Amino acid sequence: MKKFLILGDGIVSHLVANVLSNFGHKSFILKSKGTKKLSKSNRYFSLNILSKYFLSLMEFWPLDKNIIPYSKIKTWDNETHKKLNFDSHDISFDNFGFVVNESELIDKIITKSKKNKNISYLNIIEEESRDGIIRILDQKKITDIDYIISTIKNHDLVLNRIKFDEINYNQEALVTNVKLENSDNHTAYQKFSKSCIYGLLPLGNSNYNLIISADFDKINDLKSQNKTKFLNTIRHDLENDLFSVNKVFSHTSFPLSGYKARQHYVDNILVMGGAAHSIHPLAGMGLNMGIQEAFILYELLQRADGHMDDKLLISCDYEFRKFNNEIYYAVNFLKEFYTNKTFPNHIKKISLEIFDNFEFIKTKVIMKASGASTLKSFNLIR
Q1: How confident is the model at residue 242 (pLDDT cuts 50, 70, 90)?
Q2: For residues 75 and 199, what is the distance between their CA atoms, to the nearest angstrom?
Q3: Which alpha helices (H) appear in 140-285, and where do they start and end?
Q4: Where in the chain is the domain with CATH 3.50.50.60?
Q5: What's the longest Cα–Cα distance across the chain?
Q6: pLDDT tens digit string along 135-162?
Q7: Strand, helix or coil at 14?
Q8: Which helix (H) or strand (E) holds 269?
Q9: Is the pLDDT of residue 37 over 70?
Q10: What is the dihedral of CA 151, 154, 159, 165, to 10 degrees?
Q11: Burial zone of 150 (CB within 10 Å; 0-12 exposed, 13-18 middle, 19+ buried)
Q12: Is the pLDDT of residue 36 over 70?
């Protein structure tokens, strides 16, 4: 049995602790400072096919409350007026994704984790010795830690070991809920323009979670508007022949940043989830990338009969980068492709036409974004 210190107490941290427990390893989760029980908020996640598969495997699925599946994605570009339609049945799945509330997902995972005898919680690290070994106080006994797994980037143990590549999106995100008319409750929508990216995830009963990614001036302008003006602005910005907006709710905002770890495993520390990467929300892949890493860790441990050593963690490093770097670069390319004001519209339109007409390319993109290609690579689907 190996002993792990896990930095971070979010979704990915708890999934990793449960994976390790399945193979007989012990985890000590370091609680984040100021951690509070989440209130019901506007934050929702779109979980892809792989995430649902893995959460089911770990017995965290289904959730106790609403899960909203969607099988279609419809996008349009404001500059070229080109529309793209995606259907999950094209890759032989009933749905692309499943929209869940953040707090409901966390509550489900933490409630089960607290009953796991191989998972303990710490408020502080008791001691970091001069020989580099981390020691913690477990039930009044000093315990040496074999490995560290971090899902948070801003910790000295991470920043002193891991190097990052970073990208400045020069954007902020505003999140709100809206009510639509004439929408399809099993369809996600996305609009691109050179100033904004709008993403809409279905919440049921014509309610949608809207995330707007735009430059700071645009977001500040939206935040300064009263409810009536805000509704009129959203109606104007999202004007289309698919649906109309008839109500908006309160909103929150946060800055956007992009980064990825050059290596995931250095000097006995493995970085995963938010400690390893952050990407633009246009594809809704952030949490799915972290869950995919927990899934890969599970599969590698399964193949090794639960044996944990440096060799396995080096394999994690390789597999994490192989699968997630493609997503990271693809999302950054799409953000630049749609929002770069110097990119000629006629070239963009031709590119979108080529993409739309080549089913092989389109299918490959869908397989990658849904996580189906990862499941296929581990021989879990045909």
Answers
A1: confident
A2: 9
A3: 156-159, 216-224, 227-237
A4: 3-48+110-167+258-355
A5: 68
A6: 887 667 788 899 999 999 999 999 999 9
A7: helix
A8: strand 269-271
A9: no
A10: 80
A11: buried
A12: no
Among the listed residues 346, 369, 358, 370, the one whose alpha carbon sits nearest the alpha carbon of residue 84: 358
Instruction: Write down the pLDDT at residue 127.
Output: 57
pLDDT at 128: 58
Q: Which two tokens stand for residue 109?
A: 């995972």
The token pair that represents 63 in the structure block: 């959730």
| pLDDT of 77 above 70 | yes
The pLDDT value recorded for residue 39 is: 47
- The whole-model pTM stands at 0.94
By CB atoms closer than 10 A (0-12, 13-18, 19+), residue 95 is: middle
Task: State how far the alpha carbon of 312 is from the alpha carbons of 211, 304, 309, 318, in Å.
Answer: 38, 8, 6, 10
Tokens coding 14? 């708890």
Tell me if the domain spanning 3-48+110-167+258-355 has CATH number 3.50.50.60: yes
Between CA 204 and CA 184 the distance in angstroms is: 9
Which amino acid belongs to residue 348? K
Length of the chain: 382
Domain 172-255 falls in which CATH fold? D-Amino Acid Oxidase; Chain A, domain 2 (3.30.9)
**Could you give the C-alpha distances from 129 to 126, 132, 222, 271, in angstroms and in order?**
10, 6, 51, 21
